[in-house]
Specification:
The protein contains three helices and no strands. With about 90 residues, it is an all-alpha fold. It has one domain. α1 runs antiparallel to α2. The termini are far apart. It comes from Candidatus Ruthia endofausta. This is Segregation and condensation protein A.
């Protein structure tokens, strides 16, 4: 495999592992007060794996120049929009 194929494979592999770990976490989530089906140690291992996968994904993105520091925007949260008073006055007149 050449370098591009190897990197594409690694990106796909990391993405699949991340999605699988997140799905396991979601599928085993319990209501507060109930005993979680996974042990604390297993939960910690999932968290550690997600951290390693994410770190490697960021490293690949940085090395290829496609990494941004943008944070995800959640659609259920309202965003604050700033504007100048002068612009507001112009639209009202």
């Amino acid at each position: 495999m050449n370098n591009d194929n190897t990197q594409n494979f690694e990106i796909r592999l990391l993405d699949a592992v991340r999605k699988t770990l997140i799905a396991v976490a979601k599928d085993t989530m319990t209501q507060s007060g109930l005993k979680h089906p996974l042990s604390q140690a297993t939960q910690k291992m999932i968290t550690d794996c997600l951290d390693i996968v994410t770190s490697r994904q960021i490293a690949i993105e940085k090395s290829s120049g496609s990494h941004t520091r943008m944070k995800p925007v959640y659609t259920d949260k309202q965003t604050v929009q700033s504007f100048s008073i002068d612009d507001l006055k112009k639209t009202l007149n």
